[in-house]
Amino acid sequence: MKNIDVRSRKERGKRGVCLLLLLCTGLLVTWRQVGAVDPGAGNQSWEQRLEKMNRGSYKEAFSLALSLADLPPEEGYKILVANWHRLSNSLGRRCVYKAWYSAVPYPLHARLHPRLLDVLSLGVTDPDDKAREWAMSFLARVSFQDFTGRPDQGRDFCAANRHRAVAEVMVDGLQDWTQRSLSAEGSDLLAELKILADGWAAFRDVEEVRIAAGESDLPQLLRKLSGSPETRIARSAVRCLGHLRLPADAQREILIPLLDPGVPTTVRGAALEALGQEQNRWAVDELMNQLKKSVTQGKPDPTLLWANSRALGTIGDPRCIPLMIAAIEFDSTYATVYGVGYFGLRHLTQVSYDESHDGAWWRLWWHENRKAFPDSVSSLSIPVLSRSSQEQEKSTVSPVNYETARERTAGGDEKKRFFLLGPDATVAPPEEGYKLVIVIPGGDGGADFLPFVERIYDQVFDENYLVAELIAPRWDETQFDKIVWPTRDRPWPGMRFSTEDFVASVIDQIGEDYPVSSEGVFTLSWSSGGPAAYAISLASPSLVSGSFIAMSVFRPADLPSLDRGKGHAYFLYHSPADFIPIRMARDAVAELSRSEARVKLMEYEGGHGWRGDVFKDIGRGFDWIEGQVGKDG
3-class DSSP state for residue 271? Predict the structure, then answer.
């Protein structure tokens, strides 16, 4: 019995091994069926997926395009060509061009796909204008040439270089760009610099390009152009220099002199940003000195202050934290609280920006958290900043007959609070009455916003204007997490009045104390205040004649009929780099124009927030709005 038992176990073992081998073989076959290139099954699968790119969102289409570009180069290209006719939606084709050029993880970086030029050759003759524009932009980053308007030449370039390594093509393109730029002038030179500025990521992502740039005449050329009397050329040249990652000595020699007060503001700002590289700890002391000067010597210029803060935040030296807190304590205006808090302290402390984080808040934070930093940092005290004697003398001179902003209420309702700025009651009003600007901030308003609004009044408007900054009523503890300025068409449970009603009450209240021009009432709003400003412009009866709306969403479904906007003047201010899609502002232009409104969109660089020459841009906007009011037709 024992022998039989042993033999049975052996037989069972043999059968088990056979079954295991069969199982493994089956799994191997299955794995091969899934992973191997099977033209029939693979193409069928991708047929279905590519068809979805015609119906899905941008996010879905780009994800699918990335998956296709991630395949082995020849396999992915073969599938793409076989199914190219299926991409009937230009969005899908745009995502293909982008995915073949760049790869995740974010931030997107150069993929250097061997079949990139083959794919872009399809794009340079794409029948859709937008898709062709995308393809051309990626081809420009490879070739360092702009083939806009020259699709045949772009296609010839792709054909001539399709078998070469992409990095090699980029190096040759950069060398050709340098030679062209050495003899270019005026608008031609500016166009060449734009190509280089748009293609800056090549210096970050492609080592061959970065090395070739350093060994060429490019740094010398850009250094020469950085001193150009043409501000746009100088600024573009400085921006490009910042991407070359030059040695510290070269950066010090080229960029530090550009921080001199005599250099145009935009060029100085570009130099500050160019210094903002992680390896540039040598520049921290100079940047801190610039930051101190920026807030203590006159009114801070957002262009310089924000570029400076961004540079320090990128370098990441925590020694800057006490000085940045001191800057916010010293100058509590929006430009400093936002600029230093968002671009600088947010990166250095990992504390998300909040408009309520003033100097007192940050001082308490430093007291409670300083021990988390090395001793060389935690031992630092927050300095006390002071104005120069010249600036102190200037600050003692107050405008004549100017009324300091005071908090008021409309109709005696404590929920309808606002600040009013303008000439005092002793000043004779304009014959046609005062013009009135209602400010609806990108937040709940209040004293934190007042310094910024005061600067707007001081630098944008004259004595013929009154400015009223609204303070949002809070209807319950959760409201501000969802909507700050509820409207008639987008109400909040329990609210006693809408923002439209609030504005009407404020206009009536001010009208009791001052003569106000019937055609001279406008709104200035940004971010979360924008939707309410659109609603106010469409209210019935009409409340305002013009609207300056910055960096905000546009959702017609939440608004009254756009037909009520006929004849109304809208000045929209939005950055293509804003996290709020620029298409919303562009849609607003198109849809409001169809309703016979007068609409102008001004795009600016830098993303969400007040950027660049803020007060000059606001002034331009109101100049345009005033020019539209009262026009016939």
Answer: helix
When mean pLDDT is compared over 445-459, 535-549, 610-624, the highest value belongs to: 535-549
User: Residue 516, Cα to own-chain centre: how many angstroms?
Assistant: 37
Q: Say whether pTM exceeds 0.70.
A: no
User: In the beta sheet, which residues pair with residue 433?
Assistant: none
- Decide the pairing of beta strands 413-423 and 402-410: antiparallel
Token representation of residue 604: 């600016």
Please give the span between the terminal C-alpha atoms of the chain, in angstroms, as a whole number: 111
Give dist(CA 313, CA 349) in Å, integer: 9
DSSP string, 3-70: HHHHHHHHHHHHHHHHHHHHHHHHHHHHHHHHHS--HHHHHHHHHHHHHHTTTS-HHHHHHHHHHHHH
Strand 465-470 to 413-423 pairing: antiparallel
Percentage of the chain beyond pLDDT 90 is 56
Measured distance CA(294)–CA(388) in Å, rounded = 12
The vertex-418 CA angle with 416 and 423, nearest 5°, equals 140
pLDDT at 226 (0 to 100): 85
- For residue 307, what pLDDT band results from cuts at 50, 70 and 90? very high
| Count, residues in the chain | 633
pLDDT score at 447:
64
Whether 120 contacts 139, CB under 8 Å: yes
**Which alpha helices (DSSP H) does 164-230 contain, by range?**
166-183, 186-198, 201-205, 207-215, 218-226
User: Of all residues in the chain, what percent carry a pLDDT higher than 70?
Assistant: 88
- What pLDDT band is residue 244 in, cutting at 50, 70 and 90? confident
Over the range 353-364, which residues count as b (16 or more CB within 10 Å of their CB) and which as e? eebebbbebbbe
Cis geometry, peptide bond prior to residue 107 (ω within 30 degrees of 0): yes
State how beta strands 413-423 and 434-440 pair: unpaired
